[in-house]
Amino acid sequence: GTKKIANSYIMATTVAKKAVPISKGLPYHLSTTLNPYAPVAKWILGTSGLVAGMVHIGGVTRLTKSGLSMTDWKPFGSLPPMKEADWMVEFDRYKTYPEWQQRKTMTLDEFQYIYYWEWGHRMLGRVVGVCFAAPWAYFALRRKIPSGYHNRMVLLFTMGGTQGLVGWWMVKSGLGENRRGDSHEIRVSPYRLAAHLGMAFTTYSTLLYTGLGIMQIPNEKSRRLKELVQSLSKDAIKHAKKVRGGAVAVSGLTAITIASGAFVAGNDAGNAYNTFPKMNDQWIPIDDMVHPNLLPAYRNAFENTAMVQWNHRVLGTSTAISAITLAGLGLMHPAARHAITPQASKGLKILGGVAVGQMSLGIATLLSYVPVGLAAVHQLGSLVVLSTGIYVVHSLRYVSPGILRITRKTMVASRAGSEASVFAATGNAPT
Question: For the chain, how far is it from start to end, CA to CA, in angstroms?
Fold first, then answer.
């Protein structure tokens, strides 16, 4: 009798805690009424939007071949030339660098056009820095930064500052005297371009994930997150964990595809093999993919036009197929109804759609010989796919190893407390 009473008491306590149905999920809160840290989340997400704009402007700067128009770097920036005489001084300085030998027909008006693109890109970087640093100081002084996020803010600030240095390091690779005899179009090093773009995407991703985390603080404070996990069956948790693992894989594959796209851009590989799905009537142009003069041989993967483009095609197609597969299996599996929250479900649907759209944009860009507008939208599309993948991963964090570990400890402690209460009420230890 005592054992039956104890078990009933424990079951009733456990059921009472299962108060968060999967149909409601874990909403993201940007309302100050529900989330006192909402202003911090808005600032972080706003900064991520500025970084996305910076990536876009950087892409247009590269596509318009404007990146080598400014031949010096000032940490705090400067105004552009204001008078024609000042413009002539800047233009004459540009003429002393290697790129001029390939663009000797350029007029002053044409130089001003490319100069403004590069100048705007650099100054926008400084604007992003101010838009991060000033609110950070304000929120920190008012003790509005959530507990556990202070080190993240330091990391983000450091990443932003480093990005400027990496950008100048990249530009310098196209200004050196060793480039003066180049027979091909003078461009920055594709390796440094990939590093610069990779740093920008990493900063953006960290900002986005941080903002999403701050939006979830009310669910953590109210125990809604743990209660949702406690309401899930073993099969539901197993399915959600698989979907989250798949989302991590798709996001990682997207990041690798983006990096390969940087090498396509750095080698101007998009202006070759402008056919699809084959590359000039070949599925794998093996004879073109290994150049005997590129040694060590691995350099072909990063500097050979044919191999660089083939890699990007395969990675882009794999990303799209993986995203569609993840969305289909994640949402159509019998366990999905009791395992996937509305937030994660919406993210999976969007992920499948934007991945297909991005692949279509890539094909259109290739077939039309990389027009500036379409190529710039294609680069932005990669940011959309990555953002959606990050959102899906974050929306499924209720089955992340850390959350599950904490929840198990809580349940064990709760069970022990329930048994102690039964013992106090009956005077007999449950067995």
Answer: 11
